[in-house]
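Internal ticket #5521
Category: modeling
Description: The requester needs a full-assembly model to guide mutagenesis choices. All entity lines are attached below as received. Residue total reported by intake: 663.
Assigned to: D.W.
Attached entities:
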Amino acid sequence: MAEFLDYFRKERLPHIWCPGCGHGTVTGALVRAIDRLGLDKNNIVLVSGIGCSSRAVGYLDFDTLHTAHGRALAFATGIKHASPNLKVIVMTGDGDCTAIGGNHFIHAARRNIDITTIVMNNSIYGMTSGQYSPTTPHGMLATTAPYGNVEYDFDVCGLAKAAGASYVARATSYHVTLLIDLIEKALQNKGFSVVEALTQCPTYFGRKNKLGGAVETLNWIKDRTVNVKAAAALSPDKLEGKLLIGELYSGQRPEYTASYGEMTAKVQRTYNDYKGGNRGCELNSD
Amino acid sequence: MAETIKLMQGNEACTMGALAAGLQFYAGYPITPSTEIAEMCSEELPKGGGKFIQMEDEIGSIAACIGASLTGKKSMTATSGPGFSLMQECIGYASLCEIPVVIVNCQRMGPSTGMPTSPAQGDVMQARWGTHGDHSVIVLAPGNVKECFELTFKAFELSEKYRVPTFVLTDEVIGHMREKVVMPDPKSYKMPQRAQPSTPAGYKPFEADPDGGVPLMAPFGKGYRWHCTGLFHDETGGPTGKPAKADALLRRLDRKITKNIDEFTDYFAEGLEGCDVAVVSFGSSAMAALSAVRRARKEGKRVGMLRLKTLWPFPDAAVRKLTASAKKIIVPEMNLGQVALEVERVVHGSAEVVKLGKVNGELFHPDEVYAALKEAF
């Protein structure tokens, strides 16, 4: 492996995350997966929205785009569609991706556009100091759920799969080896890939729910999960309330930019004598 | 290929102007009365290797356009009132991050869903001040179909040159009206080009003359590996909370537009020399206004017409000049006096400003402006 820090903008460190936060672990996993695949740094664009997790891109040495809240996938769609040769990776959080950005999430999945999305799910709005999110479990506490969360949480992976994502996986900031493996596979999938990474927010989720410190919050996450392979041998009552980790779905569907490219090639064959103004194909080489 | 004569509608002319300027990317969401632009782009762009996408909403549309622009592609979206409202947050993003993008807003009656899809000109202030925070934009307002072509082309020139979101503010009448347009020879176009750095070595994405300079923009994917954020940032692109850096950034963004105001300012003028009464208008309202002005002039009245083709930055100098002779300035517009407010600000009491606002969803009739002129004399 190349020097780990070579993937970071060292002058931007230290990061803003709290002691014990899991986002750094997930960021490290992404970098290790990129390194394993030997991807060209200059060909990668990292896109994020707003929130604690979205600050990750600012520390990484790629072309990086820190966008508006919830809009990372819409910006990323424009980048990938305009320049399909680029490797586009989105780093987002549970609120950014499934609340304010939920619409873009399901439509990016529906298009199966070749974007790898890492959802850092800490079940809380950390940047605004602890409000409940679409992935806060029922009954858990948050500053806007002082009597326990009345709502029920999204299954982010189930949502992604149902909407059309062609690679869906889940790991946690505890299961780091698994997380790196899954991100590596996601990066290789030609289509919309989602890796949900459950991460601990000891400051606003763990403390509010009296889970203890960072280690206890991380263990709480670990204890909620069962590996998908192990789950096959377990009875339904053992799986009650558990989240499966591992590769949850992998399938082949036509990818958006490839389909658009095929359509374009067909149109251009039909209009091969097309002389529309002075814009030529050379302008749009990729 | 020489000049060609075509019968086309305003929306079509906007599209043709964009294509002539080298449009490579269009993301949009259907909304009347702008939809013809999306339809035409979906058909035309693939022929030249460009990209069209129908996004899930207008927020996604502008976001996708900004993303595409960051990879170096000329990008545009088109919409109308409700969609323009949804785009506001990302317009602020493009303004702060200095990302070229063109938006055609074919105005309709508002607020809200309003009266679909009757014409209106109620988005003048929103176009300037719609997103939160002080920010820079340029707004052009075609007064006929030919200008839809010309000003959309110009919007790309300005947006690319000054790295600023640029709007073409039309309305339902201008967008759907069909007129004869003499299309210039495509060989005569000087296609707008974005200034790019020559090497990644030492590249600072937001380094520019503090007095309104425009930084060089590297496309993503070319080895520059720069950071773009909607947080206040210093010249390296990294976020900053330093008051002096924030102040310098916002003032530079403002200055890069205000210092070049003469380059943006464009208007049509007739009979202003020595006029007693001036009419200031824009877009489709100005068609009726000009007709009324000419009728009054035939009757010997000293009336002049100033039709604004640039709405923002507001052409202060051109309006101020009116007060050399005009004692009254009539402002017909399909809103309750948005441009009139600016005229009042500029003339600052040295001429009476008559607000001729119309908000019933109907186009002005020349008789209405003529009646106001008669009353003025």
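Resolution: model delivered.
Comment from assignee: Chain B touches chain A through 55 residues (CB under 8 Å).
Ticket closed.
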